[in-house]
Write a structure and sequence with these properties.
The structure holds 2 protein chains of 2 kinds. Chain A contains 12 helices and 12 strands. By secondary structure, chain A is of the alpha/beta class. Chain A has 2 domains: 3-152, 3-Layer(aba) Sandwich (Rossmann fold); 171-295, Rossmann fold (3-Layer(aba) Sandwich), CATH 3.40.50.920. In chain A, helix 3 packs parallel to helix 5 and helix 8 (187-200) packs across helix 12 (286-295). Chain B has a single domain (3-266), classed as Rossmann fold (3-Layer(aba) Sandwich). Classes of the chains: A alpha/beta, B alpha/beta.
Amino acid sequence: MNYQELIKQTALADERIVVMTAENRAVVRELPPVLGPRFIDVGIAEQTMIGTAAGLALRGRIPICHALAPFLIYRAYEFVRTDVGIAHLPVKLSSWIAGFLSDGNGPTHQAIEDVALMRGIPGMTVFCPADEADMLAMLPAIWASPDPAYVRLIVRKTDFQHAPFQIGKAEVVSKGADVTLLVYGYLFEEARRAAKILEGNGLSVGLVNMRSLKPVDEQAILDAAAGSKRLVTIEDHLLTGGLYSIVAETLLRHRQTADVLPLALREKWFKPGRLPEVLEYEGFTPEKIAAAILRA
Amino acid sequence: MHINELKARALRVREHILHLSTDGGCFTGASLSCTDLIVFLYSGFLRVHRDRLDDPDRDFLLLSKGHDVPALYGTFAEIGWIEKERLQNHLSPQDSIYWHPNRNIPGIEFHSGSLGHLPAVGLGIAMDNKLRGKENRVIVITGDGELDEGSVWETLLVASAYKMNNLTIVVDRNHFQANIRTEDLIPLEPLAAKFEAFGCAVARIDGHDFMQMQEAFGRLPFHPEKPSVIIADTMRGKGVPSIEARADRWFCNFTHDEVDALVRELHGEAQADLTSETLTVR
């Protein structure tokens, strides 16, 4: 099973599903002959795609919209906010190459403010699966929900066996008394390996795959804060408005405090390049994540 | 409906608009320009009823130029979709009758206010109708200043590519942006040629002439494989000479006495003497 097979299976079983793209067919390439008129490619016109998706959703359809993350939600932001958000329509945004996944494209293509912008829209839900298997476990519930949703797509394959998914629930992989790593998306795998390094250094390490950033699993954050001496938020996102902010808001709302080390992008876009070298340069390899935690 | 009845109904709708132009005011000039179009569409042309919105064969009207919603409120009051007394709740947070359309008013299909959105939303509804194999019509009223928004043209490209003959854009061509004549700021002419170049079939009519409306709307779709566009030449403030075609009477907030005088003027009596500050920026 992959993304395309899942969407095909879902759409064939449910007439309401309409697959849309702003000429980004990377993960939906084989769907046009299968879905016929329920596959709508609007060309490079993200605003029109989102407005049209709103119109379709108004009539009971469930549009799943595809585009590169920055164009899907930055170019079309006001359409997402105004047409999908205000009307609270079940439009599903499948964003491609968010976070570090834009490799060598450069800042124009870097969606590292996406979580901040999307979670700021009332009623919008936000999901960041850790790998392909995680994404496939999460999408059926996301698509079945009546809420608008933003999903960072990911096709990375790992050997991690994920727990079943529930909207609003994090996947608590392990608990640790010394430090708990809170992470989402592509960096989950790097964090998992970083945790092993830290354990090799004698630390008791917790690891949480956040999965659902809005609604967020507040209890998982509070439990980690209560059970660990330190929390580390790890994200390929700006420091502002992402997981670090979510953790801060959650702790404040519950009148809790914690020692939180944020690993995020600080007031800058990342240096474009091949992904492994980007991780190295920006300090997000397992070794560098572990070193930053040991150093702090 | 007979032309004289349409005219009488439009006159009453214009009265409603004037009565909404006080105690906070509204976009009077921009509402009066498309009053005749909206009255025409809801007086027999559109196959739609507030109580049967789930009818699979019904038509859709979307106000993309949302600030003209007083014309819609007034029309709804006249066709019995909203209680006339309810219009007195204008701008009260206790109700949902404010400067832009919203779906809390039964019969309003979608909210607007940000320009350049509803051609795309209308395209989505039209696509759904096609998927269902239905012939329902989707009419989207835009302003002419609104045509500055690139999203309108983006949507026309797509609608044209998908041969959406069930989508009609009606341009309330009142020749004004918010505060300036379109041709003095961002000229639109030759407008019909622009729409034609984007793959649409176009008609141009006098947007205050019900005969011309009947003729043009009666011919829809203009082409079996193209979206239709009706450019309706209109006048900002139409019907009330002292505010007609004035750049500074887009948004109006009159005193009660001025409203009374304007209503008399609407009925052909003496011209109103207006001293209320003109709002050129809103």
